[in-house]
Amino acid sequence: MSRVVFDIETLAFPLETFDPVQQEYLLKFADTEEKREAELQKLNLHALTAQIIAIGMLNPDTNAGKVFYQSAKHEQYASGDGKIEFISSDERSLLQNFWLAVQHYNRFITFNGRTFDCPFLMLRSALLGITPTRNLMPYRYDANVHCDLLDQFTFYGAIRKFNLDFYCKAFGLTSPKSSGITGLNLGPLFREGKFKEIAQYCLGDVIATTELFRRWDQYLNIKD
Questions:
Q1: For strand 76-78 and strand 84-89, is the pairing parallel, antiparallel, or unpaired?
Q2: Has residue 224 been placed in a domain?
C-alpha cells in the first residue's frame, strides 16, 4: 500500500476582496473590535474566504516528498539530501500539481485533515475549476484509506482534542512550532515575499505529522 502524509497552509483574502453584502455577512456578529479581529482570523479557515499558499507531501516509507507553494515567480529546487522537491507557482497550478501527485497513493495520512485540509482542498479546487483525482473524504471510520491522526488520538471524539504542537511534545517529538514560526506569521511572511520560509514551515508540519503517525502506527494501530 502506497502512503502519503500531507498538510496545507492557508491565508485569508483581504476583506476588501469581498463585496459590501459579503463583508456584512462575514462580520455581522462582530460588534466590537476584538470580535472583528477574531472573525477576520477565522477567514483563514474556509475555502470560500481563503487560498492555499502551500501543500506539503511526504511518503512515510521513503521520506521523499514535495512541497508546492505560492510565490511571485516560478522556482524549483531540492532539499540538501535531494529527497524533498520544492515547486512554486500560483494557487491553481499548485492544486493541479497536488492532484497529479496524490493520485499515485491509496492511503492518506493527516492531522485534522478530515475537518480542515481535505474538504478545503476539494472545495478550493472546485472553486478554481479543477477536478480532484481522489476522494479525500471517504468513510470516516476506515483508517486504512484516510488516517486522520486527530480522529485516532481522540478515538473518534471520545476524549479531548489537543493541537499538533501538544501531541508532538507529549510524545517527545520535535514540534513544528520550534522554528519560531506559527500560523499567525503566515500572513506577514506572505506579504513580505518570504515564500520559501512558508514552504519550510509547511514541510515542518508534514514531518511532525509523519513522526506522530509512526508512533500511532507502532503503539495504537491494533489490528484484531
A1: antiparallel
A2: no
Exposed / middle / buried, residue 11 (Cβ in 10 Å: 0-12, 13-18, 19+):
buried
Predicted confidence (pLDDT) per residue in 21-78, tens digit: 999 999 999 999 999 999 999 999 999 999 999 999 999 999 999 999 999 999 999 9
Query: Closest Cα partner for 143 from 186, 114, 181?
Result: 114
- CATH classification at residue 157: 3.30.420.10
pLDDT tens digits along 157-203: 999 999 999 999 999 999 988 877 888 899 999 999 999 999 999 99
DSSP state of 108: E
Q: Note whether 12 and 43 are within 8 A (CB).
A: yes
The angle that helices 91-102 and 118-127 make with each other, rounded to 10 degrees, is 120
Give me the half-sphere count of Cα atoms (radius 13 Å) on the Cβ side of residue 38.
8
- Parent domain of 67: 3-219
Count of domains for the chain: 1
Burial of residue 18, with CB atoms counted within 10 A of its CB: 0-12 exposed, 13-18 middle, 19 or more buried: middle
What is the Cα–Cα distance from 196 to 193, expressed in whole angstroms? 9
Cell of 170: 507529549
